Amino acid sequence: MSDADAEAESIEVDFGEDGLVPAIAQDADSGEVLMLAYVSPEALSRTRETGEAHYYSRSREELWHKGGSSGHTQTVREVRVDCDADTLLYLVDQEGGACHTGHRSCFHRTVDGEHVGERVFDPDEVY
């Protein structure tokens, strides 16, 4: 078996002791990092089945379909896994904003408090 064939085999994700892995959502076209959330085996399975991003809400302790209540869904073009198989990258087409604060990206502030992101919706009108 060649190296290319070995790499084509399905990767077993290491969900660790808590059963979750971090997943970065990145705009598939622009490369903009939109958000980070956590994924359970069930969330990954639902993402792969539906083509839309699913995560695990640690605060609510439940499966979460991104955009299920807001309509701001993420269509997943590709799911990548890092070299240690313990972090995922969702390459997505984002509908509306990714952040519950109304911003396109959750990374809309610098550590010094400067606002650098675009607000694309009013969360009071959506939630």
TrEMBL record:
Catalytic activity: 1-(5-phospho-beta-D-ribosyl)-5'-AMP + H2O = 1-(5-phospho-beta-D-ribosyl)-5-[(5-phospho-beta-D-ribosylamino)methylideneamino]imidazole-4-carboxamide
Note describing how the cofactor binds: Binds 1 Mg(2+) ion per subunit. Binds 1 zinc ion per subunit.
Cofactors (names): Mg(2+); Zn(2+)
Localization per Swiss-Prot or TrEMBL: Cytoplasm
Enzymatic class: hydrolase
Organism superkingdom: Archaea
Residue numbers binding Mg(2+): 82, 84, 86
GO molecular function: magnesium ion binding; phosphoribosyl-AMP cyclohydrolase activity; phosphoribosyl-ATP diphosphatase activity; zinc ion binding
Keyword hit for Zinc: yes
GO biological process, one term: L-histidine biosynthetic process
Enzyme Commission numbers on file: 3.5.4.19
Segments forming domain Phosphoribosyl-AMP cyclohydrolase: 35-108
Keyword Magnesium: yes
Annotated positions binding Zn(2+): 83, 99, 106
Example of a GO cellular component annotation carried by this entry: cytoplasm
Keywords: Amino-acid biosynthesis, Cytoplasm, Histidine biosynthesis, Hydrolase, Magnesium, Metal-binding, Zinc
Pathway the protein takes part in: Amino-acid biosynthesis; L-histidine biosynthesis; L-histidine from 5-phospho-alpha-D-ribose 1-diphosphate: step 3/9
Function: Catalyzes the hydrolysis of the adenine ring of phosphoribosyl-AMP.
Family: Belongs to the PRA-CH family.
Subunit: Homodimer.
Name by which UniProt lists this protein: Phosphoribosyl-AMP cyclohydrolase
Organism lineage string: Archaea, Methanobacteriati, Methanobacteriota, Stenosarchaea group, Halobacteria
Gene: hisI
